[in-house]
Amino acid sequence: MARCLQLAGNGAYTAAPNPLVGAVLVHGEHVLAEGWHQRPGEGHAEVRCLAAFGPEPVPADAVLYVNLEPCSHHGRTPPCVDLMIARGIRTVVVAHEDPFDKVSGNGIERLRSAGMEVRLGVMEEEARWLNRRFITSVTEHRPYVILKWARSADGLLDKMPRSERRGTPISGSSTQVLVHRWRAEEQAILVGGRTVLNDDPELTVRLVEGPSPTRLVLDRSGITPSCSKVYSQGPKTVLFNALHRSDVQVEQVTLEQGPMPIRTLLKVLHQREIRSVLVEGGARLLNAFLEHDLWDEARVITSPCELIEGTPAPNLVRPPFRTMVMDHDIIDLHYRSINPPASAPPS
Ligand SMILES: [Zn+2]
Questions:
Q1: Using CA atoms, how far apart are residues 219 and 287, in angstroms rounded to an integer?
Q2: Where in the chain is CATH 3.40.430.10?
Q3: Pick from 4, 3, 34: nearest CA to 19
Q4: Which residue did the predictor score with more confidence, 61 or 73?
Q5: CA of residue 341 to ligand 1 center, whole Å
Q6: CA–centroid distance, residue 80 to ligand 1 (Å)
Q7: From-to residues of CATH 3.40.140.10 in the chain
Q8: Catalytic: 42?
Q9: pLDDT at residue 2, rounded to an integer
């Protein structure tokens, strides 16, 4: 099962909105074949594992390990349970049930009624942690929310006046590489209009090999310049505004004026099958997620520099679950909904 989870992790940048799944076919002490799910529309882990094994009959005492309940519905591909039954698999070990409505125990039931022995609950905690984005999405009907901010040693988000801030990043270079990896792991990245106005960020993945997430800008007062980098170059951007703008050539979604529309925003993202969003600021937007208690992780980078003046960073009262040190930065990892198992690597 540990190998299944390792294989499943290969899809971390590409499998969404599908879950991360790995499968291993074992005979005695030998691994006969392996597979993992790479991207939507392509073969599920079980299919790829059995394809890798080849057309010959599967030995009767072989065991198929898979970290998520095999699917029993016709989605983008035919159900895996049909294939497993047809290929004569007799024993299956599964980490946990698929919380997705259309599967949710049906897959296991179908395998059992076909006479297969199904063992459930092996490395379940680790497997649920690996698929926390998918599981949160299908059970809470909203994306998994990761808040991220960098603050100075004196607890400020940025330096005043803002014009002097550009090009003087708060955090060190290794930390910035880490932040780019964090971006590559999520489907979307969200910032407020003021962050675009002040920093003109690209919000892309540049320091690691990986896909850039969809960029989301919440700007209901229309303060973001049309020449901003998020509007003029790079990956897809969606602008959430109150009034449609004809000077900006990106997709636009109109939201009501009034209080911070966190729930509406998450609902729109969920409808688009966005399983996770990284919120990178600014202070008002981050605080709104904290106040609504609509977040799952907060990753807080504290640099040794002092800014003296600036916007106060959001204040998380509870202590971090884990703390890492990188360059001269301290990285605090907070988890609201689910804590990582002891065996999980940091962040
Ligand atoms: Zn499947």
A1: 16
A2: 142-335
A3: 4
A4: 61
A5: 26
A6: 4
A7: 2-130
A8: no
A9: 96
Confidence of residue 164 (pLDDT cuts 50, 70, 90): very low
Give the distance (Å) from ligand 1 centre to CA of residue 270.
22
Poorest-pLDDT segment among 92-96, 137-141, 195-199: 195-199
Question: CATH number of the domain at 2-130, please?
Answer: 3.40.140.10
92 Cα: distance to centroid of ligand 1 (angstroms): 14
Q: Is the pTM of this model over 0.85?
A: yes
Angle subtended at Cα 18 by Cα 218 and Cα 289, rounded to the nearest 5 degrees: 30
CATH number of 142-335, picked from 3.30.420.40, 3.40.430.10, 3.40.50.1000, 3.90.226.10: 3.40.430.10
CA 239–ligand 1 middle distance (angstroms): 34
Catalytic residue of the set 29, 42, 46, 309? 46
Q: Kindly tell me if the per-residue pLDDT of 55 is higher than 90.
A: yes
Q: Residues 178-234: pLDDT tens digits? A: 999 999 999 999 999 999 999 899 999 999 999 999 999 999 999 999 999 999 888
**How far away, in angstroms, is 120 Cα from ligand 1 center?**
17
Query: Each residue of 263-281: pLDDT tens digit?
Result: 999 999 999 999 999 999 8
